[in-house]
Amino acid sequence: MRLALPLAPLAPTRGDWVARALMALGVLAIVAGLVLPLFVLGERAFLDRAGQWIGGGNFLAYVGNPALRIALWHSLWVSALATLIVVTLAFFAAWAVTRTAMPGRGLFRVVLFLPLLAPSLLAGLSLVYWFGAQGAAKGLLFGAPLYGAVGIVLGSCFWTLPHAFLILITAFANADGRVYEAARVLGASPFRVFRTVTLPSVRYGVVSAGFVVFTLVFTDFGVPKVIGGSYNMVATDIYKQVIGQQNFGMGAAISLMLLLPAVLSFFAERWASKRQDAGLGSRATRHVPAPGPWRDRCAAAYALLLSGLILAMIGMAFYASLVKYWPYDLSPTLAHYRFESVPGSGWRAFGNSLRLALYVACIGTACVFLWAYLTEKGRSLGALRGLFRFLVMLPLAIPGLVLGLGYVFFFNAPGNPLNALYGGMALLVLCTIVHFYSVAQLTAASAINQLDREFESASSMLRAPFWRLLGRVTLPVCLPAVLDVWFYLFVNAMTTVSAVIFLYSPDTMLASVAALNLDDSGETAGAAAMASLIVVACALVRLAHWAVSRYLLARMQRWRNP
């Protein structure tokens, strides 16, 4: 009789100790780049202008100030209205792409994602040329003023539509084809199928999209700054308190007010996402819609209309930047691309944005995949793993304006050894990576988790360090996700405004900030030119991303398509 003796656990290798050290370093980096700035921000909310403790005085002053209370109501009202419009538009767009056989569905998806390549302020600039006092289609507003709630809602709908569409198209794609087949066999009408099958299957996706859009609009700074006029919003009030009145305590208090709806929406969206994911069984089949002439024609008409509106918004910004003097002299010119009123050089600001985007994309992608691998596949990491997972999800609930103001208070403190970073490119890189880290981490973790743990078991038995497995197996297999994370970080670094509005110096002026400053100085055409440059840069990088992806996948991942 033989007795099977349990194998003794392998002693920690040098690779295990390196993994623990790197995980501890990652936790420290998140604490320094996120937790401590937010802590200092919260502390500053209880101080007056002179830095003296006043308890809840700033909050009481906020509640007691009618103008500030009105700004809070404005933000809630505009966010709710924009959410209703955007979710409705995105719902039928996702339905048209996934539930009909209309032609041109791929092209429609591409057009819907174009606003992701533009800073949010581009929408405000285009609206001025369409519906402003000298607008090409000002009569369509029937006398309603553009500057204020109308403009903010229209501009917010433009730049948040892709976010809602992405969530809803994922929800629609998770449909079980067996249910639709059963409905067809039972003779259910198309409307009844839509009411009893389609709507219930995507309800949590609708809720998730609603919370995401509400949070994006409520915390946005670009559109209200450009087209808000005297219509105060919470995000613009923070800017006015900090930059205009130097009232940092009140700015910190309003930032915490801005943080509360974002945090609540974050947890509600996470709940809805989990419920949506749980709705698809293991035996589900893919739903392939059958052609329907009238349905497909209606879907195509809707897609054509929505695509036309998006292209009109982007096209107007380009057109306005290329004419001499709107609307009196429409002869072509490149004079607005000189950016003469930008301190230093407008092209230098554009170059700074390119540098920032490249630094963020390269450094961020390396950090994301290193720590995502350690989090998902690392051995013997204990509580560090759970702590890191919790901390890297926090940026999803932190508005960029709040994070940027926290960086001002933390890194600009004279006694902080990291004070030397303030005003430099390194701090902008750190803030941008932290701001957009969560989505990149989720993408990388999802790709890494698709690999079987047998790779790690074999590597452990061979006493091979984790970085060898990461470099030779994990990264080549996860190459599509690596490229997607790189592009995601690049585009967001190019288009971000709120996270960096408090952190730049004359030497590190960014293109998105320069566009805001040009608009403030009355050079709307120059602002449109700068925003157009951002779109062109992002579009070119997207084409390069597509080409490189196809080439590398064909050369390095032939096993996916044997």
H/I helix tally: 22
Strand order of the largest sheet: 1-2
Distance between the termini: 48 Å
Q: CATH superfamily name of the largest domain?
A: MetI-like
Overall CATH class of the largest domain: Mainly Alpha
Supply the number of structural domains.
2
Label the overall shape: globular
Low-confidence runs (pLDDT<50, min 5 residues)? Answer: none
Strand content: under 5%
CATH architecture of the largest domain: Orthogonal Bundle
**What is the mean pLDDT?**
84
Task: Note the main sheet.
Answer: 2 strands, antiparallel
Number of strands: 2
**Rg calculated over all Cα atoms:** 25 Å
- Kindly report the CATH topology of the largest domain: MetI-like fold
Structural category is mainly alpha
Show the helix and strand layout.
Layout: H1 14-44, H2 57-64, H3 66-99, H4 105-112, H5 121-131, H6 149-173, H7 177-185, H8 190-219, H9 222-227, H10 234-244, H11 248-277, H12 293-321, E1 323-325, E2 329-332, H13 346-377, H14 383-393, H15 400-411, H16 425-435, H17 437-448, H18 454-461, H19 466-477, H20 479-495, H21 511-520, H22 524-556
